[in-house]
Design a protein that fits this description.
180 residues; alpha/beta; 5 helices; 34% helix; elongated
């Protein structure tokens, strides 16, 4: 019969002076890897929920000539957005620019909007917002914020294109005031 060598050590003999080799553990601790995985999952869940786009609701009129909104001239206030955070406005229809056309900034326009809202019956109230080519997108958002802050009901303000006369008025006013 053949003998099977069951000694460990690869042919080393056992004895009092021979040390037994220490066996290394091959077990890998995955606890830190699992912790890191959960931290990454948590991070991505929070960042994706925070980065969701939030937008302001914008009520846009439909292009239906039969469904035009008719308002009284006395209830209309036109807001013109110029460059350098300037806001120009006039009440009603622009007949005499020297008397009607006024200038303001975003600090003072809130009170002007509020005064018009308080002085006009809500059924007749209408704000027309027009942005010049030199106006920034920030200014357009700021004026919409002012409408929201002053609790102007949706449908009582609209953004429309600026006429050539109004554009020339803004340019001449800015030139006279030294706004570049």
């Amino acid at each position: 019969m053949a003998d099977v060598d069951t000694s460990s050590g690869g042919g080393h003999k056992k004895g009092p002076g021979v040390k037994k080799p220490k066996k290394q553990s091959t077990r890998v601790d995955l606890t830190p890897m699992v912790d890191l995985g959960f931290l990454l999952i948590t991070f991505f869940v929070f960042t994706t929920t925070m980065s969701q786009a939030t937008a302001m609701n914008m009520n846009e009129p439909k292009d239906d000539p039969d469904n035009l909104l008719k308002v009284k001239n006395s209830g209309v206030m036109t807001l013109l957005l110029g460059k350098s955070d300037q806001v120009y406005y006039y009440m009603g229809e622009l007949v005499d620019p020297n008397k009607q056309f006024k200038s303001s900034n975003f600090k003072d326009i809130r009170q002007v909007i509020l005064d018009k809202k308080n002085a006009t019956p809500i059924g007749d109230l209408m704000y027309i917002i027009k942005a010049d080519k030199q106006a920034t997108f920030k200014n357009a958002i700021n004026i919409l914020d002012e409408m929201s802050i002053n609790a102007v009901p949706p449908g009582h303000y609209a953004e429309v294109d600026m006429s050539d006369v109004e554009s020339q008025l803004i340019k001449s006013t800015e030139a006279a005031n030294g706004i570049k």
